[in-house]
Automatic annotation (TrEMBL):
Organism (species): Methylacidiphilum caldifontis
GO biological process assignments: folic acid biosynthetic process
EC number(s) per entry: 4.1.2.25
Keywords: Folate biosynthesis, Lyase
GO cellular component: cytoplasm
Keyword DNA-binding: no
SUPFAM superfamilies reported in the protein's UniProt record: Tetrahydrobiopterin biosynthesis enzymes-like
Pathway(s): Cofactor biosynthesis; tetrahydrofolate biosynthesis; 2-amino-4-hydroxy-6-hydroxymethyl-7,8-dihydropteridine diphosphate from 7,8-dihydroneopterin triphosphate: step 3/4
Name of this chain's protein: dihydroneopterin aldolase
Keyword Lyase: yes
Dihydroneopterin aldolase/epimerase domain: residues covered: 186-298
């Protein structure tokens, strides 16, 4: 039931997965760092990858895990390190199924088949070691896919069937429940913005002060990577978030703070590092009321 292979395009396991997909005429894709960076230079254009906004390998890893139904991590050694370990942590924090297969894993092909079947995986992210780190990983990964996955062509009507839709919805809900229990929070409090907002004409005659506060839920691995590297590119840039919120709030007149809150949520949830958020917007429409406040909480799944 594999419909697409996703990979980051690095040498080794990533390239093996993409080459195998091309050879089997299975659609492929995935995210790679800005500039199509890899240890061997620019990733060839024959690989249909999209570039992330940054050169961070961590961002690419997170995006590929998030955009797939499950991740297969392939190494020669039994221990996960560096990028492969980060892949595992992102999968755990996002609530995504993952499987690690190494050179000495017993019943490799059967385990891969059971992993794909039990998790109903259609978009498979393949990650693992670089060729420079584990010489021979490309061939090992290619042969693993060759002997584990059989291409199945299913009618388009299958993916519209009621049972399929129910199963997919259940899986997404289960993943969301796991997301909410594993997260860190970046909080931006009391962003003051002047905006034209209000139901009555009187309210909209001049700009009003509104106050916006945000709780941004991040995967635990994001903060962990930031601590290890002490590099802004590996975490959420809250200065950029503040600018986006200010721009959205002042971009046009609105009747309701509900509309503004939903627009902010929709925009911020496009950031792959943000699993969910809570938005609090306060306005001051009455002289005898301190403030009127709306609070919404949203996640990637829209729940």
């Amino acid at each position: 039931m594999i419909r697409k292979i996703v990979s980051g395009g690095q040498t080794g396991a990533d390239r093996a997965a993409l080459d195998w997909a091309i050879a089997k005429d299975i659609p492929h894709g995935g995210w790679c760092p800005k500039g199509r960076l890899s240890e061997s230079g620019i990733i060839p254009l024959r690989y249909q990858l999209s570039e992330t906004p940054t050169t961070s390998y961590t961002t690419r890893t997170a995006w590929n895990v998030w955009d797939s139904d499950g991740t297969l991590i392939v190494t020669l050694n039994p221990s996960l390190t560096e990028g492969s370990l980060a892949t595992q942590k992102f999968a755990e924090n996002f609530g995504k199924p993952w499987l690690h297969i190494h050179e000495n894993s017993p019943e490799k092909e059967i385990r891969v088949q059971e992993f794909l079947s039990s998790n109903t995986i259609e978009i498979l992210n393949v990650a693992g070691s670089r060729e420079s780190k584990e010489k021979g990983i490309y061939e090992f990964c290619y042969q693993l896919l060759e002997h584990s996955i059989k291409k199945e062509v299913l009618p388009e009507s299958f993916f519209r069937a009621p049972d399929y839709g129910l199963a997919l919805a259940f899986r997404q809900k289960n993943q969301q429940n796991q997301l909410t229990s594993l997260r860190d929070i970046i909080r931006l409090e009391d962003i003051n913005v002047e905006a034209f907002i209000g139901v009555t004409e009187e309210e909209r005659k001049k700009k009003q002060r509104i106050v916006i506060s945000l709780d941004l839920y991040l995967a635990l691995q994001v903060i962990h990577e930031a601590r290890l590297t002490d590099n802004l590119s590996n975490t959420l840039d809250y200065a950029v978030i503040k600018q986006k919120v200010e721009l959205i709030a002042s971009s046009k007149p609105r009747n309701l703070i509900e509309s503004l809150a939903e627009e902010i949520a929709e925009e911020l949830l496009t950031n792959p590092l943000i699993l969910g958020l809570k938005i609090k917007i306060s306005k001051f429409p009455f002289p005898n009321v301190g403030r009127v406040t709306l609070i919404i909480e949203r996640s990637k799944s829209g729940q």
